[in-house]
Write a structure and sequence with these properties.
Blueprint (H helix, E strand, L loop, with lengths): L8 E4 L3 H12 L4 E4 L18 H7 L2 H6 L3 E3 L1 E5 L9 E2 L12 E3 L2 H14 L3 E3 L2 E9 L2 E9 L4 E5 L2 E4 L6 H5 L3 E3 L6 E8 L12 E6 L3 E7 L4 E8 L1 H4 L7 H9 L3 H8 L2 E10 L3 E3 L3 E2 L2 E3 L5 E2 L7 H22 L8 H22 L5 H7 L4 H8 L8 H7 L20
Parallel strand pairs: 1-2, 1-11, 2-7, 4-14, 11-20
Antiparallel strand pairs: 3-6, 4-5, 8-9, 9-10, 12-18, 13-16, 13-17, 14-15, 15-16, 18-21, 19-20
Length: 421
């Protein structure tokens, strides 16, 4: 039973998924508490937004704040071969409206997430920092809230009608409930850092995302940010990056820079700034989206390899969809897992469409150029999926891409957990 002083909703994690869900639920008049183990502003990677992030930002009412921000505007993406040959930039405005979907941003996540925190608080959300979630509170098969520990070690229980797990890649609930599954193939390692004063484009090309290839299907991201900073990282199989016994992150990064002429030239005039970072085992999924009293959103539900910068888009999308589903459930006074079947199916459809493109990308013989050269009529569908318009029927696209690379079957995940799970 939830006391009158308890929130209706408690959210684990103050990232894009959790804060977007919290803001919308508070907008509907629900009492919401968000807990996060860090103090803001805090560092996160995942800095490039793709075009269809626009709809979630619009639903949240954040477009005016984004346009007024210092974030680097992003109008295009391009690809670079190891020898430095660069594709023509794909400008989003060739397919989408220049004043809405076609203009997105490269963000500094500490600033972007702080914007989301401030926005949620303006809507009435209580955001509690420096609290570590220690366990889920349960009565039989129902989640009734969370136990948290403050920085002094004191424990506190927060009871709520429903708990949203937005804990990111940590996947707090999914791990503890035994739902988390690694992707069968997408387990890459990323090493990244930041440069100040390195080369970038001009005009509409200044904020372009560039994917620069290295051998063995590895790739660099090159993401220009504001204040003359660039985020740059290498993603590849761990055994490739650590070949010949190289383990030091700087040594790994510096060696890979020499394997792409464009990256080497771009960074030659800049100064490496700050530490080197590493993360591994990129892609994972939760078998279930919900149980009674619990819903998973964002990376806690699923996380894909970042090659197409889908992370923040999917996080915000899940937060918005999850908030609408939770609001309806609260109004109906029915928080059973089965209420979230449509939510889980919608998210999985989008994730699976993007996942198919990621699998194709990593196949050794695959090239988007080859697909479009043979089937130019599919260029639009390919662009739409890469841009985040992922909840559509792309069966014709997958049929043709199978001529160039294997396409995985959809994973049977995302359904609500049965009552005894």
């Amino acid at each position: 039973m939830v006391s009158s002083a308890s929130p209706e909703v408690v959210v684990i994690g103050a990232g894009p998924a959790g804060l977007s869900a919290a803001a919308i639920l508070a907008e509907y008049g629900h009492k919401v508490i968000v807990v996060d183990r860090d103090r803001f502003p805090r560092y996160r990677v995942g800095e490039s937004l793709i075009p269809f992030t626009y709809h979630s930002l619009e639903r949240l009412g954040l477009i005016p704040k984004m346009r007024a921000s210092a974030f680097q505007k992003k109008y295009s993406v391009s690809f670079v071969q190891p020898d430095g040959r660069q594709s023509a930039p794909f400008y989003f405005h060739t397919r989408y409206d220049r004043n809405t979907i076609a203009q997105t941003w490269q963000v500094l996540r500490s600033d972007f997430d702080q914007m989301l925190v401030d926005h949620a608080r303006e809507r009435g959300v209580e955001v509690l920092e420096e609290l570590t979630v220690t366990r889920l509170l349960k009565e039989d098969d129902r989640v009734t809230g969370i136990e948290v520990k403050d920085k002094d070690g004191h424990l506190r229980e927060i009871h709520a009608a429903i708990t949203l797990d937005a804990s990111g890649k940590e996947s707090f609930a999914s791990v503890r409930l035994g739902w988390r599954e690694r992707d069968p193939f997408l387990n890459k390692v990323a090493v990244w850092t930041y440069y100040k004063g390195s080369q970038r484009g001009t005009g509409d090309d200044e904020g372009a995302t560039t994917i620069a290839f290295v051998p063995e299907k590895g790739w660099f991201w090159h993401i220009p940010q504001h204040n003359d900073m660039v985020s740059v990282g290498i993603v590849a199989e761990g055994k490739y990056l650590t070949r010949d016994g190289v383990r030091d992150l700087k040594d790994i990064f510096d060696r890979e820079v020499t394997r792409n002429a464009w990256i080497k030239e771009r960074l030659s005039s800049g100064t490496q700034t700050g530490p080197f970072h590493v993360t591994s085992e990129y892609s994972h999924h939760s078998r279930h989206c919900a149980c009674t009293g619990l819903l998973l959103v964002g990376d806690a539900f699923a996380f894909l390899d970042p090659v197409f910068s889908s992370g923040v888009m999917l996080a915000l999308k899940s937060g918005v969809l999850g908030a609408e589903a939770v609001h309806e459930a609260l109004v109906a006074n029915d928080l059973s897992a089965s209420r979230f079947e449509a939510y889980g199916a919608t998210l999985r459809e989008g994730i699976e469409n993007m996942r198919k493109l990621v699998y194709a990308f990593y196949h050794h013989d695959f090239s988007f150029k080859d697909v479009v050269m043979k089937y130019p009529e599919l260029a639009g569908e390919l662009t739409d999926c890469l841009s985040g318009d992922v909840n559509r029927d792309f069966s014709a696209l997958w049929e043709k891409i199978r001529e160039f690379a294997p396409i995985p079957d959809s994973l049977p995940y995302g359904v609500p957990a049965p009552a005894a799970a």
